[in-house]
Design goal:
This protein is of the alpha/beta class. It contains eleven helices and 13 strands.
Length: about 350
């Protein structure tokens, strides 16, 4: 089985600090290679992999602002589809743009939909529905207007996250600084319960950061540490009393939530999107609907068994399970190759 794996190029694969889509692509690619599959990873030139690497974009455009995203996205996608007939299957993690190339090859195309940035992108997915294959990353993120082969939850490398059985004393917000993610609400929760809050993540909305986050930063009760890499991430997640995840959108998955639980840290999240699929209410954390409800439930977090948080992740969100799920879907697609391929014959 020869797989062409199409990664995003916002960040390196795997990312050095932030880049959830690239992180998932890397884990899947390396897992497939370990199983003996022939995988070619189409990613940035500075990506690191045991698969064959094909890259036209030198670095992620979020890491080098001299790189014009649309130019290099077009070149990146074209690089794969100009040789797509050499593969048995194309696995697209690059959102909707590659679908517009999918009927130019007879190779079946599978797309993992990592969420919908806007309902306005649905027309592309609808056009290629049933002509290509779709995987959702949570049941909550399935669009009723599309057809899916499967829901496959993300997996993480459990070896990168150590169980810390004893809770720390601080609360942690770990995510993009953007209104969707709820940093402002995390600050309000921490103030209400009188606990220290550490905020970690990239600043995606400068105006929001300046108006809603920065005024509260004092380096003590509320501290901002920026985006952190894998080594510091484990220590931050594992040392927290709880991870606060007061989201204001229907989160498609939530990798940081799973990573926190892998370290034994319970999660207090707003009950939106995929959270009921990711957090086991009352066992690995709590699902709430407001700042006040989150503050009220925080004392109960100390009763959560941190080992149970780790077991939950081991049972449901390990990388091996994710790789197995995708191999099953690959076989399903390849059992009906003409259903998911375009009309151009192989040369």
């Amino acid at each position: 089985m020869k797989i062409a794996m199409l990664a995003p190029i916002a960040w390196r694969t795997p990312p050095e600090h932030y880049g959830p889509w690239e992180s998932v692509v890397s884990l899947l690619t390396e897992g497939l290679v370990a199983r003996g599959l022939d995988v070619t990873l189409f990613a940035t030139q500075n990506s690191q992999t045991r698969a064959k690497l094909v890259g036209v974009c030198p670095r992620g455009y979020e890491e080098d602002r001299s790189i014009i995203p649309k130019v290099w996205e077009c070149l990146h996608v074209a690089e794969l589809f100009e040789c797509a007939d050499a593969f048995d299957l194309v696995h697209n993690h690059f959102d909707y743009l590659p679908l517009t190339y999918s009927q130019m090859t007879s190779t079946p195309v599978l797309t993992t939909i990592h969420g919908f940035s806007s309902p306005a992108i649905l027309p592309v997915y609808k056009k290629y529905d049933r002509r290509t294959a779709y995987v959702a990353i949570s049941n909550a993120d399935r669009s009723p207007q599309l057809t899916y082969l499967a829901t496959i939850h993300h997996g993480i490398d459990l070896g990168l996250f150590t169980l810390q059985a004893d809770p720390g004393d601080y609360l942690l917000f770990f995510g993009r600084i953007h209104p969707d993610k709820g940093a402002r609400e995390a600050i309000a929760i921490a103030h209400e319960v009188g606990r220290r809050l550490i905020i970690a993540g990239i600043i995606q909305d400068e105006v929001y950061f300046e108006s809603e986050v920065k005024p509260h930063l004092d380096g003590d009760r509320v501290a901002f540490v920026g985006s952190v890499g894998p080594t510091r991430r484990e220590a931050l997640l594992g040392g927290a009393y709880a991870l606060l995840h007061p989201i204001h959108f229907a989160e498609p998955f939530g990798l940081s939530v799973v990573e926190a639980m892998a370290c034994g840290t319970p999660v207090v999240a707003f009950n939106r999107g995929s959270m009921p699929e990711v957090v086991q209410h009352g066992t690995t954390g709590y699902l709430v609907s407001s700042v006040d409800e989150a503050a009220a439930i925080l004392p109960a977090v100390r009763e959560i068994d941190r080992k149970a948080c780790r077991r939950w992740v081991e049972q449901r969100f390990g990388v091996d399970r994710m790789v197995n799920d995708y191999i099953r879907v690959y076989k399903q697609v390849l059992a009906e190759p003409t259903r998911y391929a375009g009309g151009i014959a192989r040369s």
